Amino acid sequence: SIENIAAREILDSRGNPTVEVEVLLDDGVLSRAAVPSGASTGAFEALELRDGDDTRYGGKGVQNAVDNINERVVDELVGIDASEQRLIDQVLLDLDGTADKGVLGANAILGVSLAVAKAAAASAGLPLFRYLGGPNAHLLPVPMLNILNGGAHADSNVDIQEFMIAPVGAPTFREALRWGTETYHALKSVLKERGLGTGLGDEGGFAPNLDTNAAALDFITEAIQKAGYTPGRDIVLALDVAATEFYSDGSYQFEGEKKSAADMVAYYGELISTYPIVSIEDPLAEDDWAGWEAMTDELGGRIQIVGDDLFVTNPKRIRKGIDTNAANALLVKVNQIGSLTETLDAVELAHRNGMRCMMSHRSGETEDTTIADLAVAVGCGQIKTGAPARSERVAKYNQLLRIEEELEDAARYAGAAAFPKYKG
Ligand code: PGA
Ligand code: ZN
């Protein structure tokens, strides 16, 4: 059972404070989890509690969330068996008592929730993916490597936030990571040859200024070929538009022009006819339900349409999306909803209703690798955790290498079956 819980303020990959939690069990097991943080945060996400004290970290300190754990949560959870995850998460939700977790802070609740799971796994002598996923956890996800960053994750003029490559043709996760990483390096030389910037954005992808968003897809296609792979067969493409970021007063400010939802859907239709794109995330804004329905109606038969800011990993919003056919896939971010139990509920709801799921990091990350295990535990077949560069991104991919090795012959790489078939 839980003997003690202790939290502290640490730094994330952008140099902003975040919450780290340690859980000590009475059998001597000590486990630790750290909480990520977004930049293009959805308006409907659970509340990330920040101190707002301008004398520390520009108001971004998380000392109050830390105090909430050390002074309030500990007393409620000491003595409970760490394997009682659902019960423990319910105690946390009840103690907070609000829909957005604004009293304790979703960052406080999630840190405890994840650290408890890790402690329970260690106490049972099981790797986290096995503890959470049971005997059937064996599917290694396709790494969606974000190799060109724009939007809120870069200072460039590129509107689309993430340009990802998915090495679906590889036989194993290890090979997929190699193919993707070789392409990442090839992209650097493609950009260099043209005198474009090769500085990195928040998620480790290159962040050059470009004439159009499609130019990014041209350079990436060239990089795939330069690395010796075939676009559309070995490696396919995916986007996270993060359209909420350039939406205001009912229209989209894209490539210097004012566009309607219909204009955007038509644009995406052209893109997927030109490039081997299998997945588009947040093509429309988080409030534009009608736009999402039109998008899924027109393009949902050809590609995966992923709700991130639209769903915020919240079963209520996912339910609405299912009922209105607003998207056909769910982006899964543990800190959007703020507890492990609710995250697992969100994935189950999506899967039961025929939606694919993509496990995801945040643009602000730490060395914590929980989402790698979680992706294998739920068998979702897709994970996005940035470029194959910068240790807070690579830590998750490296953990998946370890999991694949541990599974030996039982490991299966999700590959092309993780996505709708690209027809070209
Ligand atoms: P965020 O970006 O972590 O800054 O919200 C990631 C995403 O939009 O998927
Ligand atoms: Zn997103």
From TrEMBL:
| PROSITE patterns assigned | ENOLASE
Q: Which reaction does it catalyse?
A: (2R)-2-phosphoglycerate = phosphoenolpyruvate + H2O
Q: Which GO terms describe its cellular component?
A: cell surface; extracellular region; phosphopyruvate hydratase complex
Q: Which keywords does this chain's UniProt record carry? A: Cytoplasm, Glycolysis, Lyase, Magnesium, Metal-binding, Secreted
Cofactor dependence is on: Mg(2+)
- Positions with a binding annotation for Mg(2+): D240, E281, D308
Mention one GO molecular function: phosphopyruvate hydratase activity
EC number(s)? 4.2.1.11
Residues covered by the Enolase C-terminal TIM barrel domain = 137-421
Instruction: Give the active-site positions.
Output: E203, K333
Query: What GO biological process term is on the record, naming one?
Result: glycolytic process
EC category name? lyase
One Pfam family cited in the UniProt record for this chain: Enolase_C
Keyword Metal-binding listed:
yes
State its location(s).
Cytoplasm; Secreted; Cell surface
User: Which InterPro entries has this protein been placed in?
Assistant: Enolase (IPR000941), Enolase-like_C_sf (IPR036849), Enolase-like_N (IPR029017), Enolase_C (IPR020810), Enolase_CS (IPR020809), Enolase_N (IPR020811)
Q: Which Gene3D superfamilies match?
A: Enolase-like C-terminal domain, Enolase-like, N-terminal domain
Read off the NCBIfam families from this record: eno
Describe the function of this protein. Answer: Catalyzes the reversible conversion of 2-phosphoglycerate (2-PG) into phosphoenolpyruvate (PEP). It is essential for the degradation of carbohydrates via glycolysis.
- HAMAP family per the UniProt record, alphabetical: Enolase
Record-given protein name: Enolase
Q: What is the originating organism of this protein?
A: Stackebrandtia endophytica
